Amino acid sequence: MENQSPRQTRAGLSLWQSYLWCCVDVLSIWIKYISFPECSADYQDYTPCTDPRRWRKFGSYRLTLLERHCPPKFERKECLVPPPDGYKPPIRWPKSRDECWYRNVPYDWINKQKSNQHWLKKEGEKFIFPGGGTMFPNGVGKYVDLMQDLIPEMKDGTIRTAIDTGCGVASWGGDLLDRGILTLSLAPRDNHEAQVQFALERGIPAILGVISTQRLPFPSNSFDMAHCSRCLIPWTEFGGVYLLEIHRILRPGGFWVLSGPPINYERRWRGWNTTVEAQRSDYEKLRELLTSLCFKMYKKKGDIAVWQKSPDNNCYNKLPRDTYPPKCDDSLEPDSAWYTPLRDCMVVPDPKFKKSGLSSISKWPERLHVTPERISMVYHGSDSTFKHDDSEWKKKVAYYKKLIPDLGTDKIRNVMDMNTLYGGFAAALIDDPVWVMNVVSSYASNSLPVVFDRGLIGTIHDWCEAFSTYPRTYDLLHLDGLFTAESHRCEMKNVLLEMDRILRPWGHAIFRESSYFTNAIETLGKGMRWECRKENTETGSDTQKVLVCQKKLWYSSNQGSR
């Protein structure tokens, strides 16, 4: 059970204990072909755990209705989500950053409401993205140029990972890709309609999410930089819990960038439908809260203000015991981030990790292959297991490229590794025109800090539930032993239907599993209109196979609801 946590070991025992039951269940699926029906056409943008059809069941306080609320088992849809009429294969990267097909994301509301801010505009059959935003209507490039002047660390590889809260159509993250900074754009499914879907259609990393009552699905000390451009998050309300969450996920020495209210209120307040007194008060509250969290004002110019999180624990150690917010106690794990409630306390970085701060961690691209010190938190994690994993994935990915010649070309852009350990699959693809969402199971040993320390991005997730994304947002899904590890918890049929939902037509899925599971996967794949073929592994293993599947393009024949 190398590289597995005690929880995974127990899961393995559970799997063996239920072997006979699993065997009967899977063999019955393997023998009997199931043809999955189509969902109705009005489910073309279906997001099961953030479904507007179910919002009325949840409260609007702190926008909790926008958080994840997955349907119970008896309400799950066991049907194939159709594409919009006229759907086409997405425009290829990097051209996709500037334009996409209108029929692939046919939403007029955002075009009408945000055209004056140059978010996007419709021209013929396409949406065009001029690179504007609420705080940068004249172009994101000039906005980021100014930001780089304020933060030189954006230029030399010090800053590699960033999170954009309230991302719009992710133009900020798209611009940073050319500057060597990998940004995860975050936005809820809200009245802006499909911000995250636009981002992913453009080939820019994004995920559905909202800072509300639960932690974001990331470990502590993950991102080198966080950004909010008039994202309208009430940072100082509710005891400052939203800013406390930014503090938690930001690496020591990391930067928080804010543009929009209340920054530059002296000149801007008239356009914000407020008073100068109210904005001055908001600014003072924000400044006081940041100071209490050991942030220091780094630089400020025009509409942009930059704060830096304390690079070490000296500031936290000097805080009075009766200060607010208090330090979190040991009852809450700093890296716990799957349905973990927000608390009005401050997560202080573990002082034993001396090389995880922004000033100590290796600069990009060197940090990709340097063993992170937080690997010691992973069960059986060590420098040798890290180096071995890195080496093995280079061989595996080279083999995958023989099986799927499109991998490594501009035909594949958005990639997900559905159950990564150290991010080795993503690291092996680093020179290709792709980005990879690294997913770590909420039931596995939490290795996601290692992934972020390498300069990669990812999220925690439980594959018994739907992923936080729109349909048709990934070109390639990869899983390595997911069903071996999770089949005792998650029904294979539901996982595969979710993969079909998020996979683009003509997209590929690579399964590295034992033959015991690949036969069942292949049968279910045929019922989802996939074409699958079984291959040997690169080593010719007798116990493991590689199953390569491709989703086909089809259009809905259902108009009613299912």
Descriptive account of the structure:
Belongs to the methyltransferase superfamily. It is a single chain. The radius of gyration is 23 Å and the shape is globular. 27% of the residues lie in helices and 18% in strands. Strand 2 (121-123) and strand 3 (126-128) form a beta hairpin. It folds into 2 domains: 133-356, Rossmann fold, CATH 3.40.50; 372-551, 3-Layer(aba) Sandwich (Rossmann fold). 45% of the residues are buried. With 562 residues, it is an alpha/beta fold. The protein has a 7-stranded mixed sheet with strand order 6-5-4-7-8-10-9, sandwiched between helices.
In which range does the helix fraction lie? 25-40%
Structural class: alpha/beta
Cα(first) to Cα(last) distance is: 43 Å
**Broad shape:** globular
Total beta strands: 17
Under the CATH scheme, the architecture of the largest domain is 3-Layer(aba) Sandwich
Oligomer: single chain
Number of helices: 16
Describe the largest sheet: 7 strands, mixed
Please provide a brief summary of the model.
With 562 residues, the chain is of the alpha/beta class. It has 16 helices and 17 strands. The chain is globular, with a radius of gyration of 23 Å.
What are its keywords?
Rossmann fold; 16 helices; methyltransferase; globular; glycoprotein; alpha/beta; 7-stranded mixed beta sheet; SAM-dependent_MTases_sf; 562 residues; transferase; 17 strands; signal-anchor
